[in-house]
Amino acid sequence: METLSIGQEIIAACEQLGRHSDDPDGLTVAYLSPAHRAVAAELQEAMAAAGLTVTVDALGNVLGRLACGRTGARTLITGSHFDTVRNGGRFDGRLGIVLPIALARHLTETGERLPFDLEVIAFAEEEGLRYASTFLGSSPLVGQFDASVLERSDASGVRMRDAMKDAGLDPDGIAGLRRDPERLLGYYEVHIEQGPVLLQAGEALGVVTSIAGGVRHSCRVIGTAGHAGTVPMPLRHDAGTAAAEMVLALETRCRAAEGVAVVGTAGRFEVVRGATNVIPGECRFTIDLRAAENGPRDRSLADVLQACREIAARRGVGFESELTMNVPATPCTPAWVDALAAAVTALGLPARRMPSGAGHDAMMMGRAMPMAMLFVRCGNGGVSHSPQETMSAADAGQAAAATLGFWRSLGRSVRDLPAGPRE
Ligand SMILES: [Zn+2]
Q1: 41 and 183, same domain (yes or no)
Q2: Distance 412 CA to ligand 1 centre (A)
Q3: What does DSSP say about strands 62-66 and 53-56: parallel, antiparallel, or unpaired?
Q4: How far apart are the CA of 37 and the centre of ligand 1, in A?
Q5: Which of 15, 84, 274, 375 has a CB 3.0–4.6 Å from the CB of 29, allowing a cystine?
Q6: Is the CB of residue 118 less than 8 Å from the CB of residue 100?
Q7: CA 80 to ligand 1 center in whole angstroms
Q8: Ligand 1: distance of its center to the CA of 30 in Å?
Q9: Does residue 422 sit within a domain?
Q10: How much distance in Å is there from the Cα of 28 to the middle of ligand 1?
Q11: Given its phi and psi angles, is residue 168 left (phi above 0), alpha (psi -120 to 50 degrees) or beta?
Q12: Residues 187 and 371: beta-carbon distance below 8 Å
């Protein structure tokens, strides 16, 4: 396989898909928008041209299948999402779709047959831009679809159920998308790193060990509002300064985490009814904590909340916090991690093992089956979720070569299903 030329083909395919956007200036592709439907149509064409058998499921996922022709063969699913965040990047998600399509075309052309069926899935939705419904595309496959999102409305008041019917999809068919894990080999996803680690290390590829789980709290600090000019400093119960100290405690605790890295963010910070000449009486902020393992993450959270309570007691303010999200970390399958690392090493490249700080479809799929994930260096300082996101053709080509090597090694250990009645 000519690595650079397949890399160029992958980059060109991402750029081609990136021409479709809901807004003319950036790259925004929301679930079932006109741009979304155009991308889905192009993916169907690309899959068919690569020799894949194409279907679209009840949710709008685009599936391309390369059957190996052996009775009882299991299926390896590989894919990623083709929706974007508002003003996102061209490689986020799409890389994990067009790379396996390019490889499928290569396999079709060379006549090489893997000993398992390959299924490329372009997931219709992962980012949750339109309906705040993350993992919409992958969740039904593992029986984790939350049917209540069907009744949700978008910013223009269009219910998801109606948007789906309008696009010719079948909301009532979603429950039937669940796959029998027995028939599956597992799930593999290639994704742009979305961070600067590989770029700073000067390395093209990273082997993901675990996908970080996130825990979120919504916090409220209740102090005493007062006149900014008349209340002496020692007599104040300033909710704003208390909350600021709490956020610093969050940062200090995460920076001090040893072993497994923990990242903490207070992405929202608000003085309720704040005014220039009023001592803040109430402040709200959010905590988002992530780590590749649940234990270190939960210990950090407990410490941070304890610090918040101590700060509140010392400053004479009230503190309340409410858990708003708790997603456990998903470890990648150790034997697959080793096989993928070996495939990277076989290319003469370092196989850095690293956690994923961001959530991916692999996290959802990995709850029901073996799973592995490959990261590809993100250019331009590691910026992602932005039109500034870049990737080199050389890196994309190396990712394709590592992927093919990994698939071949999976093929050497694959066991077919026992003979019996087939679907
Ligand atoms: Zn993504």
Answers
A1: yes
A2: 30
A3: antiparallel
A4: 18
A5: 84
A6: yes
A7: 7
A8: 13
A9: no
A10: 13
A11: left
A12: yes
Q: For residue 3, how far is its CA from the centre of ligand 1 (angstroms)?
A: 24
Residue type, 354: M
Measured in Å, residue 125 CA sits from the centre of ligand 1 at: 10
pLDDT score for 202: 97
Say how far apart CA 414 and CA 241 lie, in whole Å.
59
What is the CA(93)–ligand 1 centre distance, in A? 4
Say what the pTM is.
0.86
Ligand 1 center to 341 CA (angstroms): 21
Domain coverage including residue 162: 3-211+331-413
Say how many Å lie between the CA of residue 18 and the centre of ligand 1.
Answer: 14
- Cα 92 to ligand 1 centroid, rounded to whole Å: 5
| d(C-alpha 15, C-alpha 6), whole Å | 14
Gap from CA of 188 to ligand 1 centroid (Å): 14
Could you list the pLDDT tens digit for every one of the 423 residues in the chain? 899 999 999 999 999 999 999 999 899 999 999 999 999 999 999 999 999 999 999 999 999 999 999 888 999 999 999 999 999 999 999 999 999 999 999 999 999 999 999 999 999 999 989 998 879 999 999 999 999 999 999 999 999 999 999 999 999 999 999 999 999 999 999 999 999 999 999 999 999 999 998 899 999 999 999 999 999 999 999 999 999 999 999 999 999 988 888 999 999 999 999 999 999 999 999 999 999 899 999 999 999 999 999 999 999 999 999 998 888 899 999 999 999 999 999 999 999 999 998 889 999 999 999 999 999 999 998 988 888 999 999 999 999 999 999 999 999 987 767 765 444
248 C-alpha to ligand 1 centroid (Å): 30
The number of folded domains in the chain is 2
Residues 189 and 229 in one domain: no
Assigned domain for 419 exists: no
Produce one character per residue of 278-300: b if its CB has 16 or more CB atoms within 10 Å, e if not.
ebbbbbbbbbbbbbbbbebbbeb
Distance 198 CA to ligand 1 centre (A): 17
One-character DSSP codes across 298-312: HHHHHHHHHHHHHHH
Q: Ligand 1 centroid to 354 CA: how many Å?
A: 17
Q: What is the CATH number of the domain that holds 121?
A: 3.40.630.10
Residues 169 and 287 reside in one and the same domain? no
